[in-house]
Amino acid sequence: DLPDQTVNITASMGICVYPEDGSNASELLKNADAAMFHAKGLGRNTCQFYTEELTRKAFEVLLLENDLRQAIEHNELELYYQPQVDLRTGKVVGAEALIRWNHKVLGTVSPARFIPIAEESGLIIEIGDWVLEEGCRQLHKWYTEGSIELSHLALNVAAMQLSRGGLVARLAELLSKYEFQAGRLELEVTEGFVMEKTERSINQLVAIQELGVTLAIDDFGTGYSSLSYLKDLPMDKLKIDQSFIRGVPHDSDDLAITKTILALGQGLGLRVIAEGVETQEQASFLLEAGCEYAQGYLFSKPLPADEFEAYVQRNRQS
Ligand code: C2E
Ligand code: MG
Ligand code: MG
Q1: Burial environment of residue 203 by CB neighbours within 10 A (0 to 12, 13 to 18, 19 or more)
Q2: Do 209 and 131 have their domain in common?
Q3: Model confidence, pTM
Q4: Could you tell me which residue, 197 or 309, shows the higher pLDDT?
Q5: Domain range for residue 289?
């Protein structure tokens, strides 16, 4: 009890057992510490026993983080492009750029594995900036060469890039450097971020939209956005998360959620795109239900720039 208020404290505890988990005090403390961080990671206010798995995992993360620091310098990052298709015509209208890390020993490392490490370590700022530059450079190249025409290219943006500030100025700089219409650039932010909205981040989103860049909410439906949040946000597009599309049209819950998101988008005047469309059955259902755009393995996996270019050219002719 403090003079004006009561403060509640909980404990996160890591437990080590001698002699299994260490033969001396410093080793035991180090491992107990690792177990405590694991307990914190599980939401705090709990205790966890040390396991060797924890050391192995921590070591792996450390190694990846070290290599990731040099990935940009060593030219190991690459953007792949996945087509986004107009369901009514089957034509490619845009693309989403997805990052790949070609690690010299491990081969291709999935972003699902290294983006969280990049976010945790702050490296996401540098990596995210590389993605912006590379995406704009590629879009400019396609445009000036006249090889393919895309109505937009979507880039994923991490929450930290928005909360740091500086993104708006950077975008303005890239738009003037690469000279394409701002509307050809789309940024995807995750619904999780949208929920945390701080005033500063919202102001950034507004400023981004004022530049003419469009905004999409990624993985929509997974982050429990309250509808009032959605109303206040500067947004142009919703991306229905692939976890719902997977069950369409047979799982009645997924079906209900998908239809609801489509209705919500229509009601709020937002465009809607379905992610993770793998079967013709899903595509037909979505079209029937009023969904205009889709992205997924049914059309194509994410492809390296040159293969994507060839894909779009074939698609245009067909
Ligand atoms: P996301 O932005 O929601 O991207 C969609 C993910 O679904 C991609 O995984 C894509 O390859 C995969 N996918 C596409 N179509 C299908 C399909 O039909 N079936 C299935 N099962 N999967 C499909 P990927 O490329 O592994 O990326 C995973 C996540 O990593 C992305 O999810 C995004 O959150 C993050 N990410 C990727 N690139 C970047 C980036 O440049 N910056 C940031 N901050 N995050 C990125
Ligand atoms: Mg995305
Ligand atoms: Mg997504």
Answers
A1: middle
A2: yes
A3: 0.90
A4: 309
A5: 76-317
